[in-house]
Specification:
Blueprint: H1 4-8, H2 18-27, E1 34-38, H3 45-57, H4 66-74, E2 81-84, H5 93-104, E3 113-117, H6 127-136, E4 142-148, H7 156-160, E5 163-166, H8 172-181, H9 189-198, H10 203-210, H11 215-224, H12 233-250, H13 252-270, H14 278-315, H15 327-331, H16 337-358, H17 364-374, H18 382-387
Parallel strand pairs: 1-4, 1-5, 2-3, 3-4
Amino acid sequence: MTDPAALADPWRQIIGQPSAVEQLRAGVSAPVHAYLFVGPEGVGKREAAKIFAAAILSDDFSAPDTDRTLRLAQTEQLVDLVVVEPEGRFFLISDAKRAIQAAGRPPVEKKRKVIVIDRFHVANPEVAPSLLKTLEEPPASIVLVILSQFVPKEHETIASRCVNITFSALSADDIESWLLHNAGLGVDERLANEIAAAALGNQRRARLLAGDSGFGDRLHFWQGAPCRCGTSGSDAVALVDELSDLLEEAQKPLLAEHERELAQLAEEAKKFEVTVGNKKAVEERHRRELRQFREEELRWGFSVLAQTYWQQLENSHKPDRETGESSLSRKIAQQEMEGLQDICAEVAAKLRDAQDEMKRNPNETLMLQNLFRHLPYWDVGMAQAVAN
């Protein structure tokens, strides 16, 4: 289910971006040749681009076939909406050529065609010059929308040829409010708060977690990990095996979404509303989304680990109600608080190293086993904290 208000006004699907939405609404009736959406991953840039495209191609949602146009645009199956993204980790000249070729072909059904170029922040330096002619002398019927997390120096020339629209990072409050007021999600206040913290500022991730029955199990795993780390190699192996099972379960809502999208693609293909060639692009995007989801799960888990260690340090300052003595100081004898802070700093450094290693496509299993084997063991008060 979807928020009923969002059905009446598609722009309501974009949360926490009032300025961006206002600019885009104003530009629908007479769009310029090129736009650059800049902002972090998961803040609504791609969704906004699809709604913007649907608005342009349906005369600001007033055309008789508006429902169909919006439906196909949101699943990226509309023939006059072309989405170009890198097939690998970097946006290459070959990717830019696909966008240039698409711009050279006239619209099929509508008066205009919208070309969305995603993940432009990973474009190689030579890509920008290859796109300049298309940006400077585009066909009158073409609207280019470039999505980028930031603008590297070598892409400043591209930015200068576009209307720049900034998308802000979503706060946990933005996401929590959206979860609570989206009637189709059925999320209570406690769960909304936990999901908002786990969403990493990503609205789509928040929606997936809202339908994920295993989210609480993974939260419990990461909160309890410190009292299982730093012991033996076999314990580290067991931790990683358990985590792998949890991550497999975590992927199920996303896999179900992918299956629905492919089924819809097959139905649209029967009606000749989409081309068969779209399936390959959709399947490649699905693979990338699965990789990204797994990376986000680990990033979130690492943040929970770090917070759990620091929470134990903060708890050590709380005096015992009966004796007035810190509970941690009683159990760890005369260990200096500076030593406990060093433990937390060590944890933060190891987690940063693990996140850096993730970017280099490591053997994930070995990386996690090494991490759990060498993180400090810290059992003081942990069982009670996890139980609560």
